[in-house]
Design goal:
four-stranded parallel β-sheet, Rossmann fold, 311 residues, alpha/beta, 2 domains, globular, 40% helix, single chain
Length: 311
């Protein structure tokens, strides 16, 4: 379908080609990734220079051998211009400004293009999230557009719901998330204890805060299901995405538990692509969904405390 405005994310949203096509995402801003040996490549939402197993295996053994960088303001502007020049407005979403300069670069590109295309509208949304949580917000934007929302109405709605996206599941090793600025540093839990699964949700900036630690996947996933039940809103109309990094079996188990016990409209599985994977690392199996508003996580921490005490 042809719309009056394009919806564009960035490479950290971790939406597969299938999901982007299904929900009519117009495109995304690529980033840059440097791999061991110093070679810089385009960071894309695909496995073009490697495959998931090889990538995460390499990342596990060379924790400091990879790095990422966002697209420049000039690169962002050039991509947006392909839509503006065809008479389309642009609704752009970025990874949380608490984790990356992408949002600031997008606003710089916005200012430059507003002078060149004064008749066009450009709205930039700071998602306050990253990875699949960010992707879910893009999907919601596409759904709102399909329902007839104007670009202004859409942006206004996204601002009201972006702090209702939750993450819950198991993370084996928090080294990457903590060291790459994806975690609330006051709650950082570095290193790996055998069998212990840290479990975290987002704070209002989209940083992960550990709110529980349990032993083993069985307890972690039981706690995840109960946590989702107590924090999700309108599950029967929701798409829940379960994402994983080198934990396909565990992600399959978690997804099936969600289907059986939470009963959302749909559950889909997702990869975490290299641009985010460098900053998340191997060993993640988590669910992303819309739920109750998140503020300081005190409510969520109390919920999880009650859950883990009964495991």
């Amino acid at each position: 379908m042809s719309y009056s405005y394009a919806i564009i994310g960035d490479v950290t949203c971790d939406l597969s080609k299938e999901l982007r096509e299904r929900f009519e995402v117009d495109g995304y801003i690529k980033g840059h990734i440097t791999i061991p040996g110093g070679k810089e490549l385009d960071a894309k939402l695909e496995w073009d220079f490697t495959d998931p197993k090889a990538f995460y295996s390499s990342l596990k053994t060379m924790k400091v051998g990879y790095s990422t960088a966002p697209a420049s303001a000039e690169e962002i502007a050039a991509y947006w211009e392909t839509f503006l020049s065809k008479g389309k407005d642009v609704l752009a979403l970025s990874i949380s400004s608490a984790m990356s300069v992408t949002y600031n670069l997008m606003t710089n590109a916005q200012k430059a293009l507003e002078t060149k295309y004064p008749e066009r509208k450009i709205i930039v949304i700071d998602s306050r999230k990253y990875s699949v949580a960010f992707g879910l917000l893009i999907i919601k934007a596409c759904e709102l557009r399909a329902q007839g929302q104007t670009i202004e109405e859409n942006a206004e709605k996204l601002e009201t719901i972006k702090n209702t996206i939750h993450q819950m599941g198991a993370i084996d090793d928090l080294f990457f998330i903590a060291s790459k600025g994806r975690m609330s540093h006051s709650k950082a839990f570095l290193g790996t204890l055998v069998g212990i699964k840290p479990m975290g949700d987002f704070d209002s900036d989209g940083l992960v805060t550990v709110i529980a630690k349990v032993k083993g996947y069985e307890k972690a996933f039981k706690a995840t299901i109960e946590y989702i039940k107590k924090t999700i809103v309108d599950p029967e109309n929701q798409l829940i995405i379960v994402a994983q990094t080198m934990r396909e079996k565990q992600a399959d188990i978690l997804a099936e538990m969600i289907r059986d016990q939470v009963r959302p409209k749909e559950v889909v599985l997702s990869d975490i692509y290299p641009a985010t994977g460098v900053n998340v690392g191997p060993g993640l199996a988590v669910a992303y969904y819309f739920g109750t508003p998140i503020t300081d996580l005190s409510h969520e921490t109390a919920i999880m405390k009650l859950i883990t005490e009964t495991l």
